[in-house]
Amino acid sequence: MPRFTVLAAWALVVLATACGSSPRPTLTAHPHAASTTTALPTTTTAPSRAQLSTVAQAAGPRVGVYDSPTATTPTRTLANPQPSGAPLVFLVRETHGDWLQVLLPVRPNGSSGWVKAAEVRLTQHDYRILIELGAHRITVSEGATVIDQEPIGVGTRDTPTPGGLYYTKELLQPPDPSGPYGPYAYGLSGFSDVLPNFAGGEGVIGIHGTNDPSALGHDVSHGCIRMSNAGITKLAHMLPLGVPVEIRA
Questions:
Q1: Among the options 19, 136, 222, 224, which is catalytic?
Q2: Is 208 noted as a catalytic residue in this protein?
Q3: Given the residues 125, 136, 208, 222, the one annotated as active site
Q4: How many Å apart are CA 87 and CA 89, to the nearest integer?
Q5: Tens digit of each residue's pLDDT (9 = 90 or more) over 71-96
Q6: Would you tell me which CATH number, out of the four given (3.20.20.370, 2.30.30.40, 3.40.50.960, 1.20.1250.20), belongs to the domain 54-124?
């Protein structure tokens, strides 16, 4: 799976739902650009044990999702690519013969299902993202090495960022890198627990840049995670889709 996936059709509707009240922009293609970010000195090792993650990417125009490996009829079918134009990906939880149990990018948060191995292509990586809401901190690790750690803005008391395990399902680029979403935005597989819809979208949670660095370190969003523009740019140039995102209190 490519480490750098950026879309030519912006579906910020999936992020504006839980990130803010700004008008939804239109995505445009972008050049590949290098960037760096400065990590906080408080952590020098990865916050959890290093492990490989397996990512399943749809091989065809749709993937059937089943309740169990013995089911004969799918309970739902997910289209590939996603409405944003990103490839449909899942984070694999376990395998059972020719079947894979995967996390699903659907409500309710934490939903899982079984897909046929024949309908997907598998890749592995050792990236992980840890979000600590109380500390207002994001830590990104590759294996046991921290590659970025910095302050973040998170949801307010009324529109909190939901805890749990999610994964990056798409990488988007707003047309204005100096706008409220910064130069890049990851859509996650999770949704706001209090906003069933917002600004015409489904309340999807995202990780994105910002045009207000002073808000980092505070509870400021509708549920999305805001980080520095340098930081999100660094991640956009390094990470594949399907990176686990653990959100802790």
A1: 224
A2: yes
A3: 208
A4: 6
A5: 999 999 999 999 999 999 999 999 99
A6: 2.30.30.40
